[in-house]
Amino acid sequence: MPNPINTEHFWMPFTANRQYKAKPRLLAGASGMHYTTDDGRKILDGTAGLWCVNAGHCHPKITAAIQQQAGTMDFAPTFQMGHPKVFEAATALASIAPEGLNRVFFCNDGSEAVDTALKIALAYHRVRGDGLRTRLVGRERGYHGVGFGGIAVGGIAGNRKHFGPALPGVDHLRHPLDIGRNAFSKGLPEHGAELADELEQRIVTLHDPSTIAAVIVEPIQGSTGVILPPKGYLQKLRTICDKYGILLIFDEVITGFGRLGTSFAADFFGVVPDMITCAKGLTNAAVPMGAVLVRQDIHDTFMQAAPENAIEFFHGYTYSGHPLAAAACVAAMDVYKEEGLFDRAASMSPYFEQAAHSLKGLPYVKDVRNLGMVCGIELESVPGKPTARAFDVFLKCFWEKGVLIRTTNDIIALSPPLIIDKPQIDQLFGAIADVLKAEKPVPDVKTVAA
Ligand SMILES: Cc1ncc(COP(=O)(O)O)c(C=O)c1O
């Protein structure tokens, strides 16, 4: 038996602390597609950690790069100083970014990347003399991390309601999830592109375009349960933003680095935003790091506007481009390229899609939606107990099937490492299918009352 661990002091993030601590789930090791629990059980990772370990766990090349950097130079500031690895990392990122997005601002995670991008958008308009553009537009059910900027443009009530007004002057588009019209779509849903027109017909009309700085969306809304953009939706957003001089930011914290079989979702959709926020797969999650990829002329506007020898953008973090993170980033980019992992994801996704849709018809499955190596399985909620059904499936997968899945509300979200093979895909969906088949029907509330 492993030593009992004192779980008292760690206030766990986004966790039902009391429930968790009553029966902790402890991961103690990881390699490739698997975790090992503290009691030695092997767990297939169906979520790449948290959408982040795209090349699989403890990749030897990434581990070695971090170890080597830790022994060479632990830390160097990037304020008025620099170090080789951070420039190398920025160059590697620029080389896989969509055309034109070749300037890179580093931070430490997705939340900081979002706040950084929003600040670049506001400052950009101001330095080019259009400082009335201060309004930001996000989307309902959007997740952009937990900074005040991110929760303001985000659209999750639970993440917002305790924290006051966050940023003023924020508006939201409706989200495009429409199970009524699009249930069990394979790939992009047919219906709903017209929801992008809201940007023009409702928000631009209401506020006037001269007040709007930027629109931020996740190409796929991951955290709230895999909400896919209907065919043509992102293209429409791009067109409307262009028409009114509004910057378009894609939050690619989960879609970056091969999740859809391309470097970024922007490449998959053929829509180039003005900025991309990324994190997670940026270092294969081995060291925290985030980044904003910025259109060169936006960057150049700052360079030209500031007096010579002046700091052009008053923003940054002590750990912007930390040497260990930069080393992990360079190594991760090499691994993705050398192992052809983005192409692998593209070629594996039809099999993944087929396996996902094999769940159609099982008890409580009300929708399956997928794109690339992402899929969402929406379950009917237990009456009066939202989240209970999916969480129960999560627990059974973990304790009984040796499979890690992720749930949000009553939606299972799967996003395995891109190295997953066909038998492992079968194991992942087979485990969920077995658990669903064994789920006890929940008595109708009215029947119980009668
Ligand atoms: C789209 C998106 N943006 C931002 C974030 C926040 O990233 P982090 O948790 O690294 O701050 C996430 C996290 O899942 C995300 O999915």
UniProtKB/TrEMBL annotation:
Q: Which InterPro entries match?
A: Aminotrans_3, Aminotrans_3_PPA_site, PyrdxlP-dep_Trfase, PyrdxlP-dep_Trfase_major, PyrdxlP-dep_Trfase_small
One Pfam family recorded for the sequence: Aminotran_3
> What are its GO biological-process terms?
biotin biosynthetic process
The keyword Transferase appears for this protein: yes
The lineage's top-level taxon is Bacteria
Q: Does the keyword Transferase apply?
A: yes
Q: Which GO terms describe its molecular function?
A: adenosylmethionine-8-amino-7-oxononanoate transaminase activity; pyridoxal phosphate binding
Keyword annotations for this protein, in alphabetical order, are:
Aminotransferase, Pyridoxal phosphate, Transferase
Task: Name the cofactor(s).
Answer: pyridoxal 5'-phosphate
Per the record, the similarity remark reads: Belongs to the class-III pyridoxal-phosphate-dependent aminotransferase family.
This chain belongs to which protein, by name? Aspartate aminotransferase family protein
Please report the organism this UniProt entry assigns to the protein. Noviherbaspirillum galbum
Q: The organism's lineage?
A: Bacteria, Pseudomonadati, Pseudomonadota, Betaproteobacteria, Burkholderiales
